[in-house]
Amino acid sequence: MAQKAVNSDKMLNLGYRVLMKRNSTYIAFVLAGALLGERVSYVVSCGLQQHHSLNASIWLQVVNYGFDKAWEQNNQGKLFKHMEGKLGQEGGGDGGDEGGDDDE
Q1: Contact at 8 Å (CB) between 96 and 89?
Q2: Which tens digit of pLDDT belongs to each residue from 34-71?
Q3: CA–CA dist 39, 76 (Å, integer)
């Protein structure tokens, strides 16, 4: 058991040194991962659509809906659509002159 922990620590340390120690390397790793993930997602969705177009579109809609709900739940109260009605009310309006004769 202790041997597994040591190996795990060595792997994490190696991953940190190789991928995250320098900012430029980390950014390149993240961008490459994003591009690879998009490409894999596109290839998988095209492959699914050729075989079972209805099942693929339903699957993609379910995944999209799940990620959207998780994002909204994590950012509750921070998104524009959650604050849309409150923006004009909280700060005393839009900051404009609302009928007062202040320039006299």
Answers
A1: no
A2: 888 887 777 766 665 555 555 667 777 888 898 999 99
A3: 30
